[in-house]
Specification:
The protein is α+β, with helices and mostly antiparallel strands. 34% of the residues lie in helices and 42% in strands. Strands 1-7-6-5-4-3-2 form a seven-stranded antiparallel sheet. A hairpin with a 4-residue loop joins strand 5 and strand 6. The chain is globular and about 50 Å long.
Length: 162
């Protein structure tokens, strides 16, 4: 039986409303916009907007290697959290929790992923050598792009209000 690993990454959006952050991350087009340059994503099928029991099918090309990724939204609480679970992809198990928490100064978003790799000891070696680092690099890039998007939105709103 494969080991289950956990990856967690948190980002804080200053002066941002939880509704805006949540809506942006449940808009399927955002998955393409947030991908780093070396990850190409084509949406094959997805509900608009994402919703409970919604099924997503993506064609992902990571570092030149294409694969299908299918997932289902298995939990959904508006402005609080949603969870997608992979039904087809490079991982033998993938459950991605998205948590959103607001306070007076902004919104905290946490990605928590529980995953297992196929191929036994080879998969575990791959996790140690590069999968965990790749996840950190991808989610750091995603969070940076999301922060830039909301910083630009805030600047646009300030310019409009002047």
């Amino acid at each position: 039986m494969a080991l289950t690993h956990q990856f967690k990454k948190t980002v804080f959006f200053p002066a941002s409303q939880v509704e805006a952050i949540f809506n942006y991350h449940t808009c399927i087009e955002s998955i393409c916009k947030l991908a780093p340059n070396y990850v190409k994503i084509k949406i094959i099928a997805a509900p608009v907007p994402l919703k409970l029991n919604g099924k997503v099918c993506l064609l992902v090309c990571l570092c030149g290697f294409p694969f299908l990724w299918k997932a289902k939204i298995i939990e959904y609480q508006q402005n609080v959290s949603f969870v997608d679970c992979s039904t087809l992809g490079p991982f033998s198990y993938w459950k991605h929790y998205h948590f959103f928490k607001s306070n007076k100064t902004g919104t905290l978003m946490t990605d928590c992923i529980k995953y297992s790799l196929p191929l036994g000891i080879l998969g575990e070696t791959a996790d140690y050598l590069f999968v965990r680092g790749m996840l950190d690099k991808i989610f750091s890039a995603r969070h940076k792009k999301a922060l830039e998007y909301f910083a630009n939105k805030a600047r646009e709103n300030k310019e409009i209000k002047l």
